[in-house]
Amino acid sequence: MKDLVSIITPCYNSADFIEETIQSVLNQTYENWEWLITDDLSKDNTVEIIRKYNDPRIKLQVLEKNGGAGNARNNSLERAQGRYIAFLDSDDFWYPEYLETMTNYMQEHHAELVYCNYSRCDEQLQPILKDFLADKIVTFSNLLKTCRLAPVSTMYDTKRVGKFLFPVKSKREDHVMWLNLLKVIPEGMPINKTMAKYRMRENSVSRKKKNIIKDQYLVYKDFMGFSTLKSLYYTANWAVNGFMKYSKIFN
Questions:
Q1: How far apart are CA 198 and CA 229, in angstroms?
Q2: Could you tell me which residues come within 8 angstroms of residue 140 by beta carbon, excluding any fewer than 6 positions away?
Q3: How confident is the model at residue 201 (pLDDT cuts 50, 70, 90)?
Q4: For residue 250, what pLDDT is reported?
Q5: pTM (2 decimals)?
Q6: Engineering a disulfide at 15: which of 25, 44, 47, 219 sits with its beta carbon 3.0 to 4.6 angstroms away?
Q7: Residue 111 and residue 86: Cα distance in Å, rounded?
Q8: At what angle do helices 69-79 and 173-184 cross, to 10 degrees?
């Protein structure tokens, strides 16, 4: 039997998009998955929409207090039973072959972490930038300068590396978690194939990079324990790379 994949999803006020996300999971050719959705006390009818789907693999938990995306992801991670951890935010989308291709590659190449190309789309899932390409092996060293890993397009093997939780006191929780993971494993492997869509909503953090330079600085200063000078150096690298990555859509 194929190994279980645990899909980790934080959810908050996603009623406009969650049905497309759910359908993309139900359409997966790889069927041995569990989906741990943690709703962060949505104020719309997100929870009602999810509960319409009568599939025992979908495991919803609604928090009693809003705690942010990192806290919601950790809630799902703590409940996860699968060998492989995959991340899918409640407004993103996978192509049907995503789980099959990612798990096959990890098994065939004995990889501990893999990532793939993804489309960068507007709220209607129409591309607004060129696909982000998984064209480089990722290491701790090069991940310090720019975050090539996105939750929608990355998977890791808990049998080989264990589980990695997200820091709840950082607005850059994804980057901190990936860096902590790459401290343990030597490299993450690329799959140069587009298998996911990342929805860049008008209020998304990725569209406001100029507002989070301080938060990125704290990734290095507080979470990596770097000196002030070293933290400033990597923050500058991240800012330049971020501008090149998203320059066409800066507010």
A1: 34
A2: 179, 182, 183
A3: confident
A4: 36
A5: 0.93
A6: 44
A7: 14
A8: 40
d(CA 179, CA 27): 31
Structure tokens that stand for 24 in this block: 């993309």
Query: 137 near 188, Cβ under 8 Å?
Result: yes
b/e map of 84-106 (b: 16 or more CB within 10 Å)? bbbbbbbbbbbbeebbbbbbebb
| Cα distance between residue 143 and residue 216, in whole Å | 13
Token pair belonging to 205: 């953090």
Residue in 229, 130, 218 with CA at minimum distance from that of residue 175:
218
Distance between CA atoms of 148 and 198, rounded to whole angstroms? 13
> Tens of pLDDT along 140-199?
999 999 999 999 999 999 999 999 999 998 999 999 999 999 999 999 999 999 999 999
Q: Contact at 8 Å (CB) between 250 and 243?
A: yes
Could you give the CA distance from residue 174 to residue 162 in angstroms, rounded to a whole number? 17
Pick from 200, 202, 245, 242: which is nearest to 92 by CA?
200
Domains of the chain: 5-208 (3.90.550.10)
Buried b (16+ CB within 10 A) or exposed e, 176-215: bbbbbbbeebeebbbbebbbbbbbbeeeeeeeebeebeee
pLDDT band per the 50, 70, 90 thresholds, residue 1: confident
